[in-house]
Amino acid sequence: MIVTGPLSSGRQAPGLPRLPTPPTGWPIGSYNTYEEAQRAVDYLADNDFKVQDVTIVGVDLMLVERVIGRLSWGRVLGTGAASGAWFGLFVGLLLSMFSNAEGMALAPILIGLVVGVGFGMAFAAVSYASTRGRRDFSSSSQLVAGRYDVLCQPRNAEQGRDLLAKLSMGTQG
């Protein structure tokens, strides 16, 4: 299975370069969103076009950081407790699987949960305190492009351009 997407680094397809290399080919379409470029390549595939010759290239890359909310000690400790609880629960479940005591199978789970919450809160507190108020917000980062060009190897570029012109005109065939 090959993982695909705008930023995926799934397994390497045969014949593709292993090191980062600039894309090659002639532009056959340009789109404002990745979804539009993906739709164009899907249209080419639906029309039996040799899509192995096609590359989607994000141009004018931007790192967009969207602020989700303000950080407070309560939020930091709560998030740390939650992530620690999940890890502690996992460790507790593993330990309980190897427990020999008949009535004590629940004890490793509870101990793992409590210790996980404690360590999660402690690590989150140390991490937050070390920033000294320089970053009192949480955010989500995303790499986006100003436009997405669809390139095709020269041997099939004209046919690809013709098909995409039909797509933009709304005709089928």
TrEMBL record:
Looking up Pfam families in the UniProt record yields: YflT
Q: Which UniProt keywords apply?
A: Membrane, Transmembrane, Transmembrane helix
Instruction: Give positions of region: Disordered.
Output: 1-23
Q: Where is the composition biased (Polar residues)?
A: 1-11
Using the record's annotation, list all stretches that form the General stress protein 17M-like domain.
28-103
The record, for InterPro entries, names: GSP17M-like_dom
List where the protein spans the membrane: 76-99, 105-129
**Domain of life per record:** Bacteria
Q: What is this protein called?
A: General stress protein 17M-like domain-containing protein
Q: Which organism is it from?
A: Prauserella rugosa
Species classification: Bacteria, Bacillati, Actinomycetota, Actinomycetes, Pseudonocardiales
